[in-house]
């Protein structure tokens, strides 16, 4: 597998409900792994790939999925390259690890959330749910929906802090409107926090995954 990654695997042989979790700019493959024991009681396998681009963070270093261009739109070619790399990583992970393919969830925080949106909207039938944390919906994606019917059946959770200093709350709210226009079944939560995942947000995430993926109510 091309990307460095970390894995939390629950007890048992599987296959396991699985989260593919992408970190934000400047973080690494360990950043979201610490959530794994607390998400839905640790019942999800959590696979955290690391962005391929090294970036300086003070005296240390972090990683990113694509470069940030101050005052300009993100580099579309770099985003497409990252998406191709993640798609290949996902396909390899499905072969290597005991993933329950009917309970596969894509999750992203900040920059990783932009890629989570891209992965899900281009192939919604592959995922049981989408989670976007402290991020925003790229405007160009509305023209790239591959399967509108499948997208309308994709449970989606969006969480955002009202005091987010990195991606302002207005962009999160605009994302919600874009998703509603696409008829995505949406759960939206705001919190009194900054660019972070709070205990309340983690609890809401656990409840969402339990209700929509682990124990969904199926109409008969």
In short:
The protein is α/β, with parallel strands linked by helices and 220 residues long. The protein is built from five helices and nine strands.
Report the helical percentage: 25-40%
Strand content: 15-25%
Structural class: alpha/beta
- Average pLDDT score: 93
Could you give a short account of the major beta sheet? 7 strands, mixed
Low-confidence parts, pLDDT < 50 over ≥5 residues?
A: none
Give the second-level CATH assignment, the architecture: 3-Layer(aba) Sandwich
Order of helices and strands: EEEEEHEHEHEHEH
Report the CATH topology name. Answer: Rossmann fold
Question: Quick one: how many beta strands?
Answer: 9
CATH class: Alpha Beta
The CATH superfamily appears as: Alpha/Beta hydrolase fold, catalytic domain
**Strand line-up across the major sheet:** 1-3-2-6-7-8-9
What gap, in angstroms, lies between the N and C termini? Answer: 41 Å
- Based on CA atoms alone, the radius of gyration comes out at 16 Å
User: How many structural domains can be distinguished in the coordinates?
Assistant: 1
Features:
seven-stranded mixed β-sheet; alpha/beta; single chain; 30% helix; 220 residues
Write the layout of secondary structure elements.
Elements: E1 5-8, E2 16-22, E3 45-49, E4 53-57, E5 60-64, H1 76-96, E6 99-109, H2 111-122, E7 129-133, H3 148-151, E8 156-161, H4 169-181, E9 186-191, H5 199-214
Parallel strand pairs: 2-3, 2-6, 6-7, 7-8, 8-9
Antiparallel strand pairs: 1-3, 4-5
